[in-house]
Amino acid sequence: MSINSDYSQQGAGRGGVGVEETSNAVEIVEVTKAFGGGPPVLDGVSVGLREGAITTMMGPSGTGKSVLLKHVVGLLEPDDGEIRIFGDDLWEMTEEQRFELRKRFGLLFQDGALFGSMNIYDNVAFPLRKHTRMSESEIREVVMGYIQEVGLEHALDRAPNEISGGMKKRAGFARALVMKPEIVMFDEPDSGLDPVRTRLLCELILKTHQEHGGTYLVITHNIDAAQTVSDYIGVLYQGKLADYGTTDDVFNSDVPMVGQLLRAEPDGPLGME
Ligand SMILES: Nc1ncnc2c1ncn2[C@@H]1O[C@H](COP(=O)(O)OP(=O)(O)OP(=O)(O)O)[C@@H](O)[C@H]1O
User: Fold this and answer.
1) What's the whole-model pTM score?
2) How far apart are alpha carbons 265 and 150 in whole angstroms?
3) Which terminus in the chain has less CB density within 10 A, N or C?
4) Contact residues of ligand 1, CB 6 A cut-off
5) Which of 28, 65, 67 for a ligand 1 pocket mutation test, highest count of atoms within 8 Å of Cβ?
6) pLDDT per residue over 221-248, tens digit each?
7) With contact defined as beta carbons under 8 Å apart, do 64 and 79 qualify?
8) CB 34 within 8 A of CB 79
9) Distance of alpha carbon 71 from alpha carbon 85, whole angstroms
10) Could you tell me the distance, in angstroms and rounded to a whole number, from the CA of residue 147 to the centre of ligand 1?
11) Which residues have CB under 8 Å from 269's CB, separation 6+?
């Protein structure tokens, strides 16, 4: 599939192959969230993230995708509804249990969220130094393994402000993986990348997932990236889950807003508001 492929063409995507029988690692159940007395950003959203699958969440800007991700990782508490991680309600457990659970998550934010005062090696080593009792030589072995996987061996001593946006994302990816997380979440991993680097990052996501397994949640506006990496796609719109299914199902959706979003058509229910 070329980068400028016809998005309306069907049959691409991972299509949930091989993961249909798994249970949900994450269950978002009837979650409602509003801020400061405003209308709900999430209005009774229910969706599961299948264990071992890559699920992508799409939707127009400002529709609550990042808010949903923050609920999954426990950074936001729902006004109503439940977040269940491996069957346990995140807000029924103690603060300490939630803290322990968070170690099973890897998070990749848009800019890699690297510490500006540390070089790339120390950034990737940081979670191991903070959360484990591994020796420096054990840490080095693990860190170098992931740094090689993301192709940053030549940039170990560089500071985050000395490397490109794509390299920052790869460093953030290595840091997200270093604790061997069972759930990995990517908030717009492709933002600011050109089409070739977006494609390379997608390949890296697929390769890493294949190698290490895990449940991935990806938030993106990039149609090509969504089609390439996803087993399942959910679409958020006006506080609700407008559609959810395998990649093929959602790209074939007869929900007008979903068709418009995935074909990037100017005409349809979506406007500039
Ligand atoms: N902590 C907060 N306090 C108040 N409002 C918030 C907070 N977090 C998010 N919002 C609001 O919730 C709405 C959804 O935001 P969110 O960042 O989840 O959208 P998004 O779908 O990820 O958008 P984009 O695709 O543009 O990144 C926005 O109107 C935003 O202003």
Assistant:
1) 0.85
2) 35
3) C
4) 35, 41, 59, 61-67
5) 67
6) 889 899 999 999 999 998 999 999 999 9
7) no
8) yes
9) 11
10) 32
11) 256, 257, 260
C-alpha distances in Å from residue 30, one per residue of 47, 64, 82: 8, 14, 7
Tokens for 241, please give them: 């889950």
Q: Per-residue pLDDT tens for 14-67?
A: 544 444 556 999 999 999 999 998 999 999 999 999 999 999 999 988 889 999
Amino acid symbol at 136: E
